[in-house]
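Milestone M4 deliverable, item 7.
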Amino acid sequence: MEPLLYIDENLRGLARWLRFLGFDTEVASGGRSDEDLLAQAKAEGRLLITRDRDLFGRAGVFWLSENTTREQLTRVLAEIGRPDEARWFSRCTVCNEPLHEISREGVPGEFDRYWRCNACERTYWRGSHYDRAKKFLGGA
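Output delivered:
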């Protein structure tokens, strides 16, 4: 079973890439206390990933010292594992909801397959951004 993740607000870029990989990844809202973050993560059974030094060594916290998104992603994947490629691109990168495939009918564009997020109604397809994301994820 894939771990549920809770990302500190200062790691939004990392959250986006974890969602690309198919991880259920919630992002903390701004201005919350460390105790609130820990309590919410625990209540939802999520691993809290943060760069906040005050949380270093706390139970249920994965602390990152890495600066770049690629380094952070590499470290997280080394700890929790890389999901099977079949799970990649299965979640909305904006709101974290699972995507579902939709009919090409009525969707402007030249691609064969489309996916939609029911929550925010964003539509996804496999254009050049997909190839760039796969390349980035493959090297992480």
